[in-house]
Amino acid sequence: MSETVEPHELSQEDFLAEVHSFQFWLEAVDGYLGGTSFGCDPDLPEQTFAGEELEFLITTLCNYCIGERAALEASSGMIRFAPDPEAAIFLATQVVDEGRHLEVFVHRLKMLGVSDPWTEIDQRANHSLLKFKDRLLEFVDQRDWEASLLVQNVILEAMEFSAFQAHAASADPITAAVLTGVVKDERRHMGFGENDLGRKLLHAPHTRSRLNQIARELNTLALSTFSEIAESLGLQGETDVSANYLATMDRLGFPHG
Asked: Backbone phi, then psi, for 34, in 5-degree steps?
């Protein structure tokens, strides 16, 4: 990325070429991962957790892994039917991001004493989130670009962004550092989804009705997941955790009631 030009000062064409490139991605990732180990400063002290507090954190991290695995599988599958090479290149960077997110969350579970993270993830999985993942991968298997983009890069990414940001504000230092780094990627993924889908809806407004139906269905699962995360983390209710998610849906004009 140019050191003298802000991306948002560029023309639409140049903006898309800049922020969807591997060069931009490499510089952005290096900027916030430099000097870290699995997404955090290796010198950060570990916090001592009470028994119930530790259980809640492990369960929450396990479900973050479910979301990241869904995004990893979906974004890699979407490359095959991306509408243009630029979108395919962007998704290639997202695949790497999602794989790294999954790795750092699994590593955090190991730091917390989980000897077999993959088994633990399966055992603690949120049922609403599993249903969400299944629906996302159905759209990917159907090669439905608009639906896949809506469910992954708008709904799922906004859901993760909101949950991670809220959690980071009250988390222990190591978990907060990991979440803060992941949030920077989620913001970029959301931007791609909003930009691409917004442009498509301008030229094909008839697709909005179909996507509205999908949004209503998936919002039920998303808000159920928010509610459980908020309860586990002791946050101030579902609405606080989901505020950014609801704002994203509002910006694109999708229902969330």
From this structure: -55, 130
3-state secondary structure 168-232: HCCCCHHHHHHHHHHHHHHHHHHHHHHHHHHHHHHHCCCHHHHHHHHHHHHHHHHHHHHHHHHHH
Sign of CA dihedral 118, 120, 123, 125: negative
The string over 203-224, giving b where at least 16 C-beta atoms fall within 10 Å of a residue's C-beta and e elsewhere, is eeeeebeebeebbeebbebbbb
| Of 196, 183, 186, residue with least CA distance to 149 | 196
Amino acid 57 reads L
Cα(216)–Cα(197) distance, integer angstroms: 17
- Domains in the chain (CATH in brackets) are 48-251 (1.20.1260.10)
Angstrom distance (rounded) from CA 125 to CA 139:
21
- Cα distances from 185 to residues 9, 164, 207, in angstroms, run 21, 11, 28
d(CA 145, CA 157): 16
How far apart (Å, rounded) are the C-alpha atoms in residues 199 and 134?
27
pLDDT (tens digit, 9 = 90+) per residue, 23-47? 877 777 776 777 777 777 787 888 8
Q: Report the C-alpha gap between 109 and 62 in whole angstroms.
A: 8
Instruction: Compute the C-alpha angle 181/67/156, nearest 5°.
Output: 85
Helix residue ranges per DSSP H, 35-172:
51-78, 85-111, 117-123, 127-141, 145-149, 157-168
Give the span between the Cα atoms of 6 and 236, in whole angstroms.
Answer: 36
pLDDT in tens, 166-220: 889 889 999 999 999 998 888 888 888 888 888 888 887 788 889 999 998 998 8
The pTM assigned to this predicted structure is 0.85
